[in-house]
Task: inverse folding
């Protein structure tokens, strides 16, 4: 078996039988109907109303109006031919106050969705938390407070009782790094706090929430397969200078190891504990027994991968500039003392994220070697481009097709090398509310005309449908992998 994707003799690369193809969305990004049927406010409803917080002052009030159009979206999934659909449940629909009894009307929406998926033979993959914390909990300190993890446990029990027998795969949290470090550290996501000490505490309370959710899911829904989704990447040092190598290690510590180590090795990385030693409250919130909970065995790991990152130590940024890299002037975490670099000649998406599919293979090998051999699902991968509907009424997004093909090929490389990847989910089914970027970034394989809510399948949708039917991908070299 090839370990480096060099089996170009046969360009058609089949995936193992039963490989799970899917697509992903998240509640706040698509549902709209934010005040309907008893839904309470979330931190994103509040954040969107802070002047300057979100591009164009956009918000999720209507979004893709999926709450009303979900049947149409189910039809799209059938047309696409996916085996699974990953969606998230909005906590404030289920518990408008973040605590107390369940709002049955909120649960009913997800019951209808899950039943609709089952009727169509599509497996629901349910994410319990994709960033829409009930505002009343934020008013009491949000993820900086230990109590929020207790509240999360209650919420999980409600959802598990309601849907435990109909949903097989459960994801506790989506990308807790974003909730904690973008939400409480950089302040660019809800709730918009800029405080490293609180971000560190939020990291722990989110992981604790995950840890408390696992045994609840196991007891209420014994058939459930339980996992967590992390946003992970590879950090390449801009040079082999020891300062740049150390900078890459710090970036890796903050994004990857702060989450992988507690979940799989029951400890926080020493260098990171040292790094955040003097921030308050930081990791002083860790209590005895917490790490035991956090590291309970999982049935799978969800990996979200978009782009690799190249970094240098900030003191060396000037030299990197000379070496013709573009050095970002912005670093949302000044304490890490690093700058990210743009590699000359490497293609980028509309998010300005560099395209390098080989980073995904490298990441998957690293996870297998250092953390877990549990099944892995790529729970998100995809790209935003400046799509448009052409005069023939088509969206010919060949750049997205190339991106998906390269990354699916990269997943194949990892499988060839023995990594236990069991599924792949494109982000996203629909163009949607892209957080701080509002509606200005389109990730969908389906175009959404936001003023009318109309959907239009893009060329990439058709390409992905063929990929699913053939259960194979044509070999693609990773663009910009030099
Ligand atoms: C991930 C999020 C997802 C989407 C993509 C582009 O970080 O989980 O909601 O915004 O990025």
Result:
């Amino acid at each position: 078996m090839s370990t480096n994707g060099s089996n170009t003799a046969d360009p058609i690369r089949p995936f193992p039988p039963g490989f799970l193809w899917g697509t992903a969305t998240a509640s706040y990004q698509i549902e709209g109907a934010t005040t309907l049927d008893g839904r309470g406010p979330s931190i994103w409803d509040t954040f969107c109303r802070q002047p300057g917080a979100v591009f164009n002052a956009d918000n999720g009030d209507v979004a893709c109006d999926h709450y009303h159009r979900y049947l149409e979206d189910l039809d799209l999934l059938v047309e696409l031919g996916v085996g699974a659909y990953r969606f998230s449940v909005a906590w404030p629909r289920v518990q408008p106050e973040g605590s107390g009894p369940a709002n049955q009307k909120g649960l009913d929406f997800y019951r209808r969705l899950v039943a609709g998926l089952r009727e169509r033979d599509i497996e629901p993959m349910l994410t319990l938390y994709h960033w829409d914390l009930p505002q009343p909990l934020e008013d009491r300190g949000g993820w900086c407070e230990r109590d929020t993890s207790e509240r999360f446990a209650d919420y999980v029990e409600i959802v598990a009782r309601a849907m435990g027998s109909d949903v097989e795969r459960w994801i506790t949290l989506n990308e807790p790094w974003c909730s904690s470090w973008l939400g409480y550290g950089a302040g660019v996501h809800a709730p918009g706090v800029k405080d490293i000490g609180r971000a560190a505490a939020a990291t722990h309370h989110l992981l604790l929430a995950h840890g408390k959710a696992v045994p609840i899911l196991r007891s209420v829904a014994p058939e459930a397969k339980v996992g967590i989704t992390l946003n992970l990447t590879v950090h390449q040092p801009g040079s082999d200078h020891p300062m740049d190598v150390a900078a890459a290690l710090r970036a890796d510590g903050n994004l990857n190891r702060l989450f992988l180590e507690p979940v799989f090795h029951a400890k926080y990385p020493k260098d990171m504990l040292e790094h955040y030693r003097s921030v308050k409250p930081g990791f002083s919130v860790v209590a005895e027994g917490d790490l035991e909970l956090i590291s309970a065995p999982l049935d799978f790991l969800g990996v979200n991968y978009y782009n690799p990152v190249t970094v240098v130590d900030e003191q060396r940024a000037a030299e990197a500039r000379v070496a013709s890299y573009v050095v970002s002037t912005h670093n949302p975490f000044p304490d890490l003392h690093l700058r990210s670099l743009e590699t000359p000649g490497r293609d980028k998406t509309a998010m300005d994220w560099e395209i390098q599919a080989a980073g995904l293979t490298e990441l998957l090998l690293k996870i297998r070697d250092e953390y877990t051999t549990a099944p892995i699902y790529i729970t998100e991968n995809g790209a935003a481009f400046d799509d448009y509907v052409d005069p023939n009424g088509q969206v010919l997004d060949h750049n997205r097709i190339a991106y998906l093909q390269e990354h699916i090929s990269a997943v194949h490389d990892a499988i060839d090398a023995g990594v236990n990847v069991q599924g792949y989910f494109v982000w996203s089914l629909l163009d949607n509310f892209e957080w701080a970027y509002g509606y200005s970034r389109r990730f969908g394989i389906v175009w959404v005309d936001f003023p009318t809510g109309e959907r239009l399948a893009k060329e990439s949708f058709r390409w992905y449908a063929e990929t699913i039917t053939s259960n194979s991908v044509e070999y693609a070299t990773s663009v910009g992998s030099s």
User: Anything to note?
Assistant: The chain has a mean pLDDT of 95. The chain has 16 helices and 16 strands. The two ends are 24 Å apart (CA to CA).
